[in-house]
Amino acid sequence: MPKIISFENVSKIYPNRSIALDSVSFDIEKGEFISLAGKSGAGKSTILKLLIAEEKPTKGRVVFSGIELNKISTREMPILRRRIGMVFQDYKLLTGKTAHENVAYAMEVAGMPDSDIKRDVAQVLELVGLSDRRNNFPTALSGGEKQRVAIARALVQRPEVMVADEPTGNLDPINTWEIIKLLMKINELGTTVILATHDKEIVDTLERRVIILDKGRVIKDEEKGKYIIT
Fold first, then answer.
1. Which residues contact residue 30 at a Cβ distance below 8 angstroms, ignoring those fewer than 6 apart?
2. Helix (H) or strand (E) holding 148
3. Which CATH number goes with the domain that contains 139?
4. Domain count across the chain
């Protein structure tokens, strides 16, 4: 499979001289499901920020689908964000909008026709199992349901890559596994999935490729890995 993401000797040093990433290199192939694992502060979130061009590397190159993200213009940013769907631990839903409206909003901002919005939002809400909750506001949804809306919102743009930053951090074990199963289903449909997590049980149960970070460095990259830091 062709590679879709490359980190080439990437370092990120913040103005206070803290080193978030130190000479990190790895490739991700189209269609992979990867766990980025490590303790809080290991560098997982920095990798994700570089990938959506929210941050730029101090050294090295980040390449997505042939595009060097170091050099992307502000004008090109919205197009990149449609190609890379992002899901966060705290959902980031608009509280004044229903589940349907939260998902539709992403398409409205992109200027999509109403007919496409109606069709696509209904499809993704069905995929995440929330068709019957479409008219509920976030305050009337459980944590697991809020995260499903967030996933639907990222998915409605048909991204090539889905990035999930600690998406189960606020969820109980049952909802955690429902979200992980949903991410696996999305991956099976052809989307590359990058899951950032510090949850050993998730990584060990998935038995997929895992990249383990510690203090900004890649200390392990295994095809069917376990979360082990020696």
1. 1, 2, 3, 4, 160, 192
2. helix 143-155
3. 3.40.50.300
4. 1
What's the pLDDT tens digit per position in 123-151? 999 999 999 999 999 999 999 999 999 99
Neighbouring residues of 94: CB distance < 8 A, sequence distance ≥ 6:
101, 102, 105, 138
Instruction: For 166-195, write each residue's pLDDT tens digit.
Output: 999 889 999 999 999 999 999 999 999 999
C-alpha closest to that of 35 among 229, 205, 230, 215? 205
Contact 192, 4 (CB under 8 A): yes
Establish if 228 belongs to a structural domain.
no
Q: What are the structure tokens assigned to 207, written together?
A: 């038995």
Domain around 203: 3-222
Please tell me the distance from the alpha carbon of residue 119 to that of residue 82, in angstroms, as a whole number.
18
Task: With respect to residue 55, please indicate whether it lies within any of the assigned structural domains.
Answer: yes
Which pTM was predicted? 0.92
Q: Is residue 227 part of a domain?
A: no
- Residue 230: inside a domain, yes or no? no
86 close to 151: Cβ distance less than 8 angstroms: no
